[in-house]
Amino acid sequence: MGKLVLAPIDLSVSGLRILDSATADGLWLRDLESSMNVQHTYIGTDITKSFFPSDLPQSISLQIQSMHKPWPASWLNTIDLVHQRYGLAAAGDLSPHGVVTNLLTLVKPGGWIQLVEADFKDCSKTGPVMTKTHQLTREAFDFMGSGSDYARQMKGWLLDAGLEDVEFRTFDVRLGAQHPDPELGAIGVKTTCQASAMMVSLATTVMKSSFEPEELKVLVPKLKEELETTGGTYRLCVVWGRKPTN
Questions:
Q1: b or e along 200-237 (b: 16 or more beta carbons within 10 Å of the residue's beta carbon)?
Q2: Cα torsion for 35, 41, 46, 52, to the nearest 10°?
Q3: pTM (whole model) above 0.90
Q4: Do strands 79-85 and 17-21 pair parallel, antiparallel, or not at all (unpaired)?
């Protein structure tokens, strides 16, 4: 993406309230905070504190909050920038649209929301094993109740909610041999294989899939080999919009 925040919010104005939903270990907040020359208030939320680090800057606070539940009343309409990435797959019964609707209640008038999600339906630049991995991921998301096409719908949700200055962009994330930086390419292989192993685990335990058991056994090793030798990509969708002031 080139930078952490694509929404055209003026981050040089001090005292902003910035929230990262589904923050995990707060990495996005920590990276953003370290790049700023002014002070802001950074809030990270997740369903569990198991990933929360103990050594955080004073301006960053992390707390337990499910994106499925109503947000604290004192937070409503108070956040200058609401951010979430890779969270909507876990929307479950609430649905990705419902999660986004909840997030929008946090944005203050004139504030921004930015959402980042992968599009596992676009296989135009993927190899045969990565294409199969995308297929399994789509089946897993359908099983979890979130569906597999929410990334392409995010712009419409913001427009339907009345947001202004809505923009939508896509990026191709290069993995393994296709990445110009070997270290980052290797990280991409590792994280992609870890995520794919979770999908395989679902398919071999609680989820019915279109894959044969023997296919599932070798999917992750074959994916690792493909990414390390020829590389691969996946499509990233980013949408942002501004809540009207009236």
A1: bebbeeeeebebeeeebeebbebbbebbbeebbbbbbb
A2: 60
A3: yes
A4: parallel
Any idea where the domains of the chain sit in the sequence? 118-240
pLDDT in tens, 135-194: 999 999 999 888 888 999 999 999 999 999 999 999 999 999 999 999 999 999 999 999
Q: Which two tokens stand for residue 230?
A: 């020829």
- E-strand ranges in the chain read 17-21, 41-46, 60-64, 79-85, 107-119, 164-175, 232-242
Cα-based distances in Å from 27 to 15, 24, 56, 181: 20, 8, 10, 21
Q: How many CB atoms lie within 10 A of CB 95?
A: 15
Q: If 0-12 CB within 10 Å is exposed, 13-18 middle and 19+ buried, where does residue 238 land?
A: buried
- For 85, phi and psi rounded to 5 degrees? -135, 140
Amino acid residing at 29: L
Q: How far is CA 209 from CA 135, 140, 151, 177, 203, in A?
A: 10, 8, 22, 29, 6
Q: Is 69 left (phi over 0), alpha (psi -120 to 50) or beta?
A: beta
